[in-house]
Write a structure and sequence with these properties.
38% helix, eight-stranded mixed beta sheet, alpha/beta, 363 residues, two-stranded parallel sheet
């Protein structure tokens, strides 16, 4: 199987590309390597995959030194002509679109970045898939689409018409755009509403990374909504396993779907939406306890009110994914946090950081 994975310098895309390359798939990774967060970490992920300094060369496909079946290209999803040329040349079987402008809070100050990447870029992906006869498009949505919803757990059968951030609105838009292409062009599409993902090589703007860094440096950690929050934390290996199962099982039209009582997570078209999470929410304070225990150091806590755009609680109903694809996360919070902390000490605080700093910044 030949696959395109966008966002392979990112957290989830990096892990997924390695997983598929290890199992023997022909993988092409794509990423713009933007500076939303420290690009050195993105470069380091590429290096870990054997890519080297590929980010210096826009539009040039670079061979991995680790996997003979993994290549990387630096490209923006907004670059329509280059993306079309890549699809025409490579003739992919399946596409996994994880590239996006991420972050809820960043959308409050940089809204145009979300329209460019998440709307224009996603349209370009859809058009390329349509014209090249892609067998299955899997794309990243987000638990943020649940917005003002309060019924728990969040279910894909729930209405998601009240997002509270532009980021969430773009992800809901992706789901609508995908459905129209599934219906018009018989393109199988699956949207994955990711809940909070954590683990080694994670994003430095996420809570686990920020908390570990501040605790070790003896600095206060900011705890929003006075700690009265819960998150459906899911370890990266469990997330990747779920994505792989989805990739291998393209959706078909639902013969029981009715326009009189339209189910939102499926359609008469080959279209599907899944929650992908742990289905076991953990309180923010318990999460912090696990970090403190792994680090062997207590946090200095700075309690703050809720931030604009944030959701107080998340809880994924993953029954569809469990029933259809036998998906069942197995990593406990204590185990997952411990693995992250070990990576953080070895990589961020250890000798490996010198390798990152030696990587040339580009763009």
């Amino acid at each position: 199987m030949k696959v395109l994975i966008t966002g392979t310098a990112g957290f989830i895309g990096f892990h997924l590309a390695n997983k598929l390359a290890k199992r023997g798939d022909d993988v092409v990774g794509l990423d713009a390597v933007n500076d939303y967060y420290d690009v050195n970490l993105k470069y380091a992920r590429l290096m870990e995959s054997g890519i080297g300094k590929a980010s210096e060369n826009w539009g040039e496909i670079v061979q991995s030194n680790t996997y003979e079946n993994y290549r990387f290209i630096r490209m923006k999803l907004e670059d329509r002509e280059s993306l079309q040329s890549l699809f025409a040349a490579e003739r992919f079987d399946k596409v996994i679109n994880l590239a996006a402008q991420a972050g809820v809070r960043y959308s409050l100050t940089n809204p145009y970045a979300y329209i460019d990447s998440n709307i224009v870029g996603f349209l370009n992906i859809l058009e390329c898939c349509r014209h090249q006869g892609i067998q299955h498009l899997v794309y990243a949505s987000s638990s943020s689409v649940y917005g003002l919803n309060e019924k728990m757990p969040f279910s894909t059968s729930d209405s998601v018409d009240h997002p509270i951030s532009l980021y969430a609105a773009t992800k809901k838009s992706n789901e609508l755009m995908a459905h129209s292409y599934s219906y018009l062009y018989n393109l199988p599409t699956t949207g994955l509403r990711f809940f909070t993902v954590y683990g080694p090589w994670g994003r430095p703007d996420m809570a686990l990374f920020l908390f570990a860094k501040s605790i070790l440096e003896g600095k206060p950690i900011d705890i929003y909504n006075n700690g009265k929050m819960k998150r459906d934390f899911t370890y990266i290996d469990d997330i990747v396993e779920g994505i792989v199962r989805v990739i291998d099982n393209p959706p078909k039209g639902n013969p029981e779907w009715s326009g009189e009582k339209p189910a939102s997570a499926s359609s008469k078209a080959p279209y599907k939406i899944y929650n992908i999470g742990n289905s076991s929410p953990v309180s923010l304070m318990d999460f912090i306890d696990a970090i403190e225990e792994s680090l062997g150091k207590k946090a200095v806590k700075n309690f703050l009110p809720m931030q604009a755009g944030d959701i107080a609680n998340t809880w994924a109903d993953v029954s569809d994914l469990a029933d259809v694809l036998k998906y069942k996360p197995s990593t406990s919070i204590s185990s997952g946090v411990e693995k992250f902390v070990q990576w953080y000490k070895d990589f961020i605080l250890g000798a490996a950081v010198d390798k990152v700093r030696s990587f040339k910044r580009v763009g």
